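Subject: Sanity check before I submit

Could someone independently write out the structure tokens for this chain? I want to compare against mine line by line before I put it in a report. The sequence has 193 residues.
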Amino acid sequence: MELVTFLLFSMIEMFGAFVFMMVLFRENPLEYTWQAAVVAILMGLQSYFLREIDLGFIAVVINILFYVLLLATVVRLPLIWSAIIACAGFFPYAFAQAALFEFFQGELLQLITSISFMLLAYILYRFGIGFEANYSILRFRWEKIMVVLVVIGAFSLTAITMYQKAVWINILFFGAASGLFLYYAIRKERKEK
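---
Independent answer below. Compare away.
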């Protein structure tokens, strides 16, 4: 029964972050519901089993990679943009969870954060707020390499901050990462107009 409850709230959490990241970049998450559900189950299973062997801190990094793969293979976005969208959508979500951790924990934290981000996604969608990315180009010659290095660095730092289990470090890191990826998305959108 514990596994079923864990998977249920993990799926809710995954959908909250997925819907937010898709709407943030003006993509339709509803077109990929069943594919996202399969990925959510895989994410939940790997998180559950990694926590069982005291490697839960790695689960977050693997989940981000699952988002990147979902966006790259199912939504069919370029790999670089998949990483940017996954990070720009996931890090604000993780920042909110880290900030709310002192007040809520466990399934309640997952539920409150997921509902909040689904409501935020609805508001973004309703008012047409979001980024319009031109997926066909990344202008600078070295930009792809730089973005890949930043994403790899973000994944590595995510694992380290989750391993530390210090809420204030998580808040600082996820806040800074959110700012970085959102700044990059805003800069790219302005340059492409």
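---
OP: Matches mine. For the report I'm noting this point. The chain has a mean pLDDT of 80.
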